[in-house]
Amino acid sequence: MMYPQVEHPQLLLPDSVIDGSDGASKSGIGVLVQDGLIKGVGEVEAQRKDCPHDTVDVDLPGATLCPGLIDGHTHLSLAGDGRSYDEMFSETDEMMVMTGAMNMMKHLRAGITTIREHGARNRVGFALKEGLQRGYIPGPRMQVSGRPITCTGGHFWVCNEEADGEEEIRKSVRRLIHEGADYIKIMASGGGTRGTIPGRASYTTEELHAAVHEAHHFDRPTAAHCRASESMKRAVKAGIDLMEHAEFLDPDNEMRFDPEIAAMMEESRIWISPTLQAWTKYPQIVELRNQQDLGTLSHNGERELDRLEKRAEVRLDVMRKLLEYDVKERVLPGTDSGVGMLAFGHLDYDLELLVEVGFSPADALVSATRISAEAIGMGDTIGTVERGKVADLVAFNGDPSKDIYAARYVCAVFQGGKRIR
Q1: Distance between CA atoms of residues 418 and 255, nearest Å
Q2: Pair (184, 64) in one structural domain
Q3: What domain range is 259 assigned to?
Q4: Least CB-packed of 134, 138, 411, 418 within 10 Å?
């Protein structure tokens, strides 16, 4: 992907740097950026000796510089404004592209420099990526799945890639790859689409394996929407690369943690994106807590906050139990933004929830950078602040490795070495 480059090399001078290797912040570090790449990282004076004569200092006082954040689960074409799926999918494809362009900028300004576009109708996802590549619209670098594969009448069937049985699934995989899919997304259970049941599996193990086999034949990884416990079990058996949601839902829509499934996930080394803010309705909780802090929360608001926090605790407790298994280094945050009230620009909410279930702030940052880059196959180019990697960087006011709430306060974003205004 090509980005306009600044005229001169830059020496970025924050208070501290988190390079993404272990999440620890280090002071007195300068980062030399030239031609869109990181040319050097180290003590400021040592970096100055290696700077070209026309290097420009970029002071970032009070800031901590980190690798650009990675959001592994977005739906760019959905507005995240509280409307139902039916209402949002009533929009034309053209309006969905416009919505996607708006959402891309929101994420980029929040320091999210790479995303996975996890399912849009028809060719909307592909159009957004092409517009980005041509330089028509700004936004995070993208991987797109195109239309998610789903059974007849299944979750996201309105995106128009329904497939039943192994042969139809193989044809869908081939069709999507031909159109430009970077990875294959398959709906292994029901979801929020009207008429589907989140706690029931949608595909057999054999059907999921057909998708995996065909995708891997063309060197494409797979991701599966798995809210139901049975779909989680089948996804692991089928060799799915990345499991989304992992909610341990039974058909009655109740979460019941299953140690057997957790052990399978641990042994298989599957990547896991729990999308914690989606189930917990964390954006609404944040808003109500803010009103509470200001003393403006009504009695009904207090009751709603209590209800939402109790609901969230069920999901967070399930995640805590999963983390008792050796999966922590396989967990990556994802916002599921676009759906419901999940507005773009808030990967920070997921980091806060990871800390709430047992991650240290430093570990949460590593999850959103190095680990996410490895999970989506981009670890060689992004995810850490080191020489030779792409200069996708974000600076926060404060140090999020010590206080995760500092990740709410972005003061500078660089993508491909170019500062985003």
Answers
A1: 45
A2: no
A3: 69-345
A4: 134
- Per-residue b/e over 189-215, b at no fewer than 16 CB within 10 Å? bbbebeebbbbbbbbebebbbbbbbbb
Q: Answer yes or no: do 94 and 170 share one domain.
A: yes
Quote the CA–CA distance of 368 and 382 in Å, as a whole number: 11
Tens of pLDDT, residues 311-347: 999 999 999 999 999 999 999 999 999 999 999 999 9
Tell me how many domains the chain contains: 2
Which of 322, 345, 368 corresponds to the end of one domain? Answer: 345
Q: 4 lies in a domain?
A: no
C-alpha 86/C-alpha 158 separation (Å) is: 9
**Contact between 140 and 104 (Cβ < 8 Å):** yes
Q: Give one DSSP letter per residue of 256-303, joined into a string.
A: ---HHHHHHHHHHT-EEE--HHHHHTHHHHHHHHHHHHHT---HHHHH
Within a 13 Å sphere around the CA of 136, how many CA atoms are in the beta-carbon half?
12
Domain assignment present for 3: no
Q: What is the pLDDT of residues 191-225, one digit of tens each?
A: 999 999 999 999 999 999 999 999 999 999 999 99
My answer on whether 135 and 267 are in the same domain is yes
Question: Could you give the angle at the alpha carbon of 70 between the alpha carbons of 352 and 351, nearest 5°?
Answer: 5
Residues 110 and 238 in one domain: yes
The two three-digit tokens of residue 254, written as one number: 């109740």
Q: Which amino acid appears at position 114 of this protein?
A: T
Same domain flag for 405 and 311: no
Evaluated on CA atoms 279, 280, 284, 287, the torsion sign reads negative
